[in-house]
Design a protein that fits this description.
The protein has 622 residues and is of the alpha/beta class. Among the domains are: 88 residues; 247 residues, P-loop containing nucleotide triphosphate hydrolases (Rossmann fold, 3-Layer(aba) Sandwich). Helices cover 51% and strands 11% of the residues. It has an 8-stranded mixed β-sheet with strand order 5-12-11-6-10-7-9-8, sandwiched between helices. A hairpin with a 5-residue loop joins strand 2 and strand 3.
Length: 622
């Protein structure tokens, strides 16, 4: 994967950057967005469609909230005395929240409001996907009218058939109501305070408020009932214990009184008897007083327990009662649309990046250098008039367009190619037959002829003679007779300043054979001083066959000074282009570089040159 990304956007080191190498800049990002604007728009539209579908098929729900406050209570035996810490820790508050969320509270509310048999409460909040589509279908059919055909369409789509009722047992109804209640109940602590927010969400705003208030009241009543029950159980235990203490206290007093009435040191046995000594009067009185104090303490606790049973007080109170909300809490159309926009953009950019990462077509000069090890001699933008094979007279019709200026820059790059002799024979080839190779040859020949060079274009693409068809008007040789020598078959291109040798002549004279082509080129560059019309050509452009036509015909490129490979931006695959380069190199054909056509995202240096030249040309033409 790293190798894949490296081929697309290779890492540029500081040394490369200082040497003038390209890096990912703002122009690359804008070009990326321009190229994949369709993908991003499609993902954005899909996200909006899903958001519209969700808003249309989701019933509004309402959320009502009540608040209660938990207050710590001072124990009865600590109401008198010093300072007491009355704070509640987090565990205590969370424990109270757990009680509110328990099934005991839920059962109290469900039984109080009779929610088991409430159809509004028991309807599902989130419909299933088939139910959503069915709802959309009903809305669309309803928008078409109430005619007979609309009714027939509803019947055909099954929209008019009511859903079959589902029979549930009492236990299933109870558990369903319990599940709905606990799912729609939300209890949260308000910050770090002792206040607790109780919220309930329902399709009925009045019902949501009633359930929230009932839940708060149920918690308060549960606390009161729990305290009353605990006080009742404690009172019963204290009453039993009081009876035991009363009996023990009376027995201790009786023994002390008996000891005092006998005026002796023991209640039984002889005085001075060392066997089974009895307690003294003082000990008996202390025991009786102790039992009396214990009895009085338990009697006071019993009195408090009885008072709590008659008037128990809860440690929580409702501070805000729930009211019926005026607006639904969900769905929120604007928020859903905003989320859809963000999600659509992220998805679109992500899909575009994946497509870009796995796209092995030529899209930049850097891609050419990294994958082919050769330079890009130029980038040509789309012509002003789009045709299948390009506009063959673009530089004549629009001499100062971006295309024309970019082609002039490419011509300069080709002229600066390293050759042992001045360049006279230039070949153009491509991967596929539907490339703009012929249009480039025609426009390039126009530029050379406009600069005063006598130019000849040879249509050597005999399998697809686009140049002959568009510059001469015929390609099948009908009405044409090959003369000797071959140079007498050269004709002037219609309405242009350069000459053309048709593909018919090339095929009939076997000029695709390297030695025949070399002899012909020597003839046309030597010229005939005796005939003005047979003067030597300064530049010869050969429209070579493509790789798709067959690699054998490309051998003729070895007799030329060099060949320029024409690749189309976003369509020419790296592998096929690499195969074409290997074929040319196998035939010992010199390759000047790659010319990129239909470049929708031009590199900054080519775009700036075309823009500056275009602006200068516009001022000159004015």
């Amino acid at each position: 994967m790293n190798r894949l990304f490296a081929n697309q956007w290779p890492v540029v080191t500081d040394q490369q950057a200082s040497a003038g190498q390209e890096f990912i800049g703002l122009s690359d990002i804008t070009g990326f967005l321009r190229h994949y604007v369709g993908t991003i728009t499609a993902c954005l539209a899909a996200a909006f469609l899903v958001a519209w579908f969700y808003n249309l098929t989701t019933d509004p729900v309402f959320t009502a909230s009540a608040q209660i406050l938990i207050e710590p209570k001072l124990p009865q035996h600590l109401q008198e005395g010093g300072e007491v810490n009355l704070s509640l820790d987090t565990a205590q508050v969370e424990s109270q929240i757990a009680v509110m969320q328990s099934e005991k509270i839920a059962s109290m509310v469900i039984d109080q409001l009779k929610l088991v048999d409430d159809p509004k409460f028991n309807q599902p909040e989130a419909p299933t996907l088939p139910e959503r589509f069915k709802k959309v279908g009903k809305i669309l059919v309803g928008a078409l009218g109430n005619g007979t055909w609309a009714t027939s369409l509803q019947r055909h789509l099954g929209l008019s058939e009511p859903d079959a009722p589902v029979t549930l047992t009492e236990y299933q109804k109870s558990r369903r109501s319990m599940s709905i209640f606990r799912n729609d109940l939300d209890i949260r602590r308000v910050g770090v305070s002792y206040a607790i927010d109780i919220s309930f969400t329902s399709a009925d705003p009045e019902g949501a408020a009633n359930i929230a208030n009932a839940t708060a009241n149920a918690f308060v009543h549960e606390q009161i009932d729990t305290k009353a029950e605990a006080a009742k159980e404690g009172g019963a235990w204290l009453e039993k214990r009081l009876q035991q203490l009363r009996t023990q206290m009376n027995e201790a007093r009786a023994r002390a009184q008996e000891f005092r009435s006998r005026h002796d040191y023991s209640v039984s046995g002889e005085a001075g008897d060392g066997i089974n000594p009895e307690p003294t009067l003082e000990e008996l009185e202390v025991t009786a007083d102790t039992y009396q104090k214990i009895y009085e303490s338990f009697l006071q606790a019993y009195t408090n327990s009885v008072s709590q049973q008659s008037y128990p007080v809860a440690d929580a109170r409702v501070i805000t009662a729930a009211t019926a909300p005026l607006s639904p809490s969900a769905p929120k159309p604007k928020l859903v649309l905003a989320f859809a926009a963000v999600a659509g953009l992220i998805l679109g950019i992500g899909v575009s990046f994946v497509r870009h990462s796995f796209d092995w077509t030529i899209r930049s000069p850097r891609h050419i250098r990294d994958n082919l090890g050769m330079e890009c001699v130029g980038e040509l933008p789309p012509t002003s008039k789009r045709r299948e094979f390009g506009n063959v007279d673009e530089v004549t019709r629009h001499p100062w367009s971006r295309y024309s200026q970019s082609l002039r820059k490419a011509r300069t790059e080709i002229s600066l190619a390293e050759t042992s002799n001045p360049m006279k024979f230039l070949g153009l080839t491509a991967v596929s037959n539907n490339s703009q190779k012929s249009a480039v040859a025609s426009n390039l020949a126009t530029l050379y002829s406009m600069s005063g060079l006598k130019t000849l274009v040879i249509d050597a693409d005999v399998r697809r003679p686009t140049t002959t068809t568009r510059l001469i008007g015929r390609s099948d040789g009908l009405g044409m007779e090959c003369q000797n020598p071959v140079r007498y078959n050269i004709v002037r291109a219609l309405g242009r300043r350069f000459d053309v040798l048709s593909s018919f002549v090339v095929e009939s004279r076997d000029l695709l054979v390297p030695r025949n082509m070399q002899a012909f080129l020597s003839e046309v560059t030597a010229g005939d001083p005796a005939a003005q019309e047979l003067a030597a050509y300064d530049i010869v452009i050969v429209d070579l066959p493509t790789l798709e036509s067959g690699p054998d015909d490309l051998v003729v490129g070895s007799v030329l000074d060099g060949v320029v490979v024409v690749a189309e931006w976003g369509k020419t695959h790296v592998d096929t282009l690499r195969e074409l380069v290997r074929t040319l190199q196998a035939s010992r054909t010199k390759i000047f570089g790659v010319l990129l056509t239909n470049a929708r995202a031009m590199t900054s240096k080519y775009r700036e040159v075309a823009t500056s030249h275009g602006a200068f040309g516009s001022r000159q033409s004015v």
